């Protein structure tokens, strides 16, 4: 992270000037006339920045226009408390700084849109913003009108589309999360209401048992039986729907034979706890009282149902906690923006956040190599990549198919593969998918920015690579991330 006390220190280098012939070797100036090159040579100078030095800071007044002569530089933008690298280059002739000094003065102070740091000893050709703006307006008046219109138009378009896209993405994630939260919350509320009724009925049943002048030893035995049945139900293996239905029939018949009041209403409770007729027969023999059996069955049934309802509440609240944890991991609001991460945590939290959008028609297959080491990354940004890739895969399958998330090692890189069983992409579309604003979706369904953003996050922000392999029934986006921090020189 860039320190707030970093200073911009540019060292003039001898002789401090470039001659017209040297300026013509830069692609930006190669078509200029001799007179124009002479003017540039007179008004510009060369400056040197040592490795690690800050060339310009985002938000400072844009007073200079820089052209890279040698070295490697990185441009970054401040996001929250962290600096996110957007461009890293060593291409001679690239330019940055006061690149819009030619735009008409609208009273708004011109500031650097990004910070730039030298990753190795670097040298620049520098013009003042005033000189750069003047030469552009005097030498290329028609081009300036076109550039101003293009610049302002793009700014307005990008602002409107970007804001709408962020709102749409946030709305979709929020709606999905609220839907997922509502189900366990509603289940917990229903279980709590039912539990209140069962506890009240259990108190009444206990009163009736006591009023029936039950002998103390039998009441003690009944309490012991209740605990044994509850413990047995807790340890019993889960039954299939067919097995549960068959057990309900057996228990209902058993209770009918003994004239248990409302036996067919009680039987499902015992079946749910996997309590069979053998257990009830043992209970009957230990009570040795037909009159007491009816009340005991109902009382134990209330206890069983109470335990089941409490388990339902525990499961529901646990699900809510899991969803909140997934949302927290997805956003990484409580963590440093750049850190060493396990990519599987982000993949899992993204899948949870997109559960509602994935739907029941898509089978999710996870083939994780859990032995993979952590990678240096901006986790919230990578989660945006996973969101875009998974969302596109689900849409490509029209909500029905198999989504396969796979991780594995490839030399010194970690690979995340997001595959779908959709129709694939023809060559003419495949070669354009990472272009800004290119989309195959209907008007209003996409901005064409998702894969462009993903590409910039993976390649520019993490020093990785992303490409697609596609054929009908098998399309895979492969994201490669280095295990080590990118070299700074």
From TrEMBL:
Write down the Pfam families for this protein, in alphabetical order: cNMP_binding, HATPase_c
Q: Where is the Histidine kinase domain?
A: 360-485
Q: Which domain of life is it from?
A: Bacteria
Key word Nucleotide-binding present: yes
**What reaction does this catalyse?**
ATP + protein L-histidine = ADP + protein N-phospho-L-histidine
Q: Cite a single GO MF annotation.
A: ATP binding
UniProt feature coiled coil, ranges: none
What is the name of this protein? histidine kinase
This protein's species is Actinoplanes sandaracinus
